[in-house]
Design goal:
Elements lengths: L1 H23 L2 H26 L5 H7 L6 H12 L14 E2 L5 E2 L5 H12 L3 H4 L3 H10 L14 H28 L8 H14 L8 H8 L5 H18 L8 H22 L6 H46 L6
Antiparallel strand pairs: 1-2
Length: 333
């Protein structure tokens, strides 16, 4: 109680002192004194706000250093210069993402892109875990994701195999396209059809070498009913790309026969490769070379048979006309 009484007396004394100062000071000194009190109050408010407001994050601090756009920048600077104690909030917060290079972009990734990143990372663990969900989980963890991310893949390990097959097909198409451009620019010579087919199939099969020990498991997954449609689609794309860059532009039945023949060559060579223990799969490439030559020879034979048949037909027709002329059937009466 005594402390409260002393506080009240001190307040009354300060009020009296203030009134005395106001009465004795000139007008100019009084205004300066008032500005001094005002600045002291602002400093007190700033120190109090520094203690209560948490520090800005990296992106918030980065955005706070940027000038505002348009006329709002000018008006804000004028208001700050005229009244330093005025505080305001920007009604248009910056919601875009800005990277370290200063370029703004949306921080957004689709589900398909995320799945592709996880499956690509999982390929590193295939030699250890095989074509399994465990490999997918290990790949997700390397990206800082939970192992529960495997729930995104309804087809499980089949999605991993199909992703790898599609990735290899894209890589092969890029290689063949680059070689085609070099030939078009005159920087390389065009290969014969047999040499080109052998080169393309060998390039594609060599992509299996890092996973050759576990590839039988992958082939069994591709033969499961849910994976067959997508597997056939990838195989069709592979064969079609090879024939396209080989220069095939046929629109007749030969379009189908050529692709069917190359599909058989690829599949049989793939099976030989799984059982090949020779250095650098030399026996596999020899087998491939023989099959390619067989197909080319069969095509040439078919052309020869067709040409021979046409010649026989033309010869028979010529013989018939000659016979008619000899017998006088074609003579006018």
């Amino acid at each position: 109680m005594a402390a409260l009484i002393r506080s009240l007396r001190a307040v009354r004394s300060l009020r009296g002192l203030g009134s005395v100062v106001v009465k004795t000071c000139p007008a100019s000194q009084y205004s300066g004194l008032r500005r001094g009190f005002h600045r002291a109050a602002l400093l007190a408010n700033d120190s109090k706000s520094d203690q209560t407001v948490p520090p800005l994050s990296h992106h918030e601090h980065h955005h706070s250093q940027e000038p505002r756009q348009g006329s709002s920048t000018f008006s804000t600077e004028q208001a700050s210069a005229s009244d330093p104690g005025t505080q305001h909030e920007d009604p248009w917060p910056n919601t875009s993402y800005q990277d370290q290079s200063g370029e703004q972009a949306e921080d957004y990734e689709t589900e398909d892109q995320l799945q592709a990143r996880i499956l690509t990372a999982a390929l590193e663990f295939v030699p250890q875990h095989g074509w399994t969900v465990e490999a997918i989980a290990a790949g997700a963890e390397t990206l800082g994701l939970s192992a529960a991310s495997t729930g995104m893949f309804s087809n499980g390990a089949g999605d991993l195999v199909l992703h790898f097959v599609g990735q290899c097909n894209v890589q092969l198409a890029e290689i063949l396209a680059e070689e085609h451009n070099q030939v078009h620019l005159g920087q390389a010579e065009k290969k014969k059809t047999a040499d080109f087919l052998r080169h393309a199939v060998e390039t594609r099969l060599r992509m299996l070498i890092p996973y050759i020990d576990t590839w039988p498991q992958a082939m069994s997954l591709l033969l499961l009913p849910p994976n067959i449609p997508e597997s056939l689609k990838h195989l069709s794309t592979l064969v079609d790309d090879i024939w396209y860059y080989a220069g095939d532009r046929s629109t007749d039945m030969s379009w189908y026969t050529r692709r069917a023949a190359l599909t058989g060559i690829y599949n049989t060579t793939e099976l030989v490769m799984l059982q090949d223990s020779s250095p650098d799969f030399e026996e596999t490439w020899a087998f491939l070379d023989n099959r390619i030559r067989d197909v080319v020879n069969m095509a040439n034979t078919a052309k020869q048979v067709q040409a021979t048949g046409e010649a026989v037909v033309q010869g028979l027709m010529g013989a018939a006309v000659t016979l008619k002329n000899i017998t006088g059937v074609n003579q006018r009466r």
